[in-house]
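How it folds
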Amino acid sequence: MSAGDQAAEDAAGLDLGKLAVVADEHGEGRAHGDELRRDTFATWPAGTLRNGVNVEDAVDVYAALSKIDVYRELIDERYWTPDRVQAWWTSTLTHTLLG
């Protein structure tokens, strides 16, 4: 670790090593979720996904729209109810991904 990194860590009260571990675990969890979605979407019959949307596109769109950050913003900053978020996710993902 450079002296500058150590100084920043000390000033912020952070343990960059622990943050790196958490980031790695988050990345592994995301990769596992993507793999499960990829496997699921790949089993769907031809024509289930919207014309022009392949399995990788479906995984990417699903991941982008269903992030916890999106949920938190809609709940905490836009004052949506959890039911409204779920309804929006259902409608948006259905219209975006399914044929």
